[in-house]
Amino acid sequence: MLGHADDSRIPSDYQAIVIEAKRQGKLLELNNNSLTPHRPNSTDGLIAYAKLCKCYDMPVCVSSDAHYHTMVGNVAPLMQLMREIDFPFELIVNMTKESFENYLKSRATRIKGS
Question: At what angle do helices 14-24 and 43-55 cross, to 10 degrees?
Fold first, then answer.
């Protein structure tokens, strides 16, 4: 999985990242911390990145990327943003235990077939 690729402090070609990650069968992280004061000015980049993931049917994981114990697992702001951009929840592989297990099974099949 590629994490923090939406970090606005590092100029990136989000479209190229999404296309190549999909081609290689890698997951991309959508990071809740991009919506906090810890990463100022990152919301626009996260939105652009998430919209490209949506456009290319790119599987993602959501992450709290907690920097404090009370924030572990808190992805509520990120999930609200996902609803606002009409992100397909079926692309979020860690949405449920079952969806994550299904992703792992499909990944194992892809790796064996390589």
Answer: 40
Q: Tokens standing for 1?
A: 């999985």
Closest CA to 46 of 88, 71, 79, 94: 79
93-97 own/partner pairs: CB under 8 Å, 24+ apart: 93/27, 93/59, 93/60, 93/61, 94/61, 94/62, 95/62
SS3 74: coil
pLDDT tens for the chain, 114 residues long, are 888 888 778 889 999 999 999 999 899 999 998 887 777 788 899 999 999 999 999 999 999 887 778 777 889 999 999 999 999 999 999 999 999 999 999 888 877 876
Fold classification of 14-113 (topology level): TIM Barrel (3.20.20)
Q: What is the pTM for the complete model shown?
A: 0.89
Domain boundaries defined on the chain: 14-113
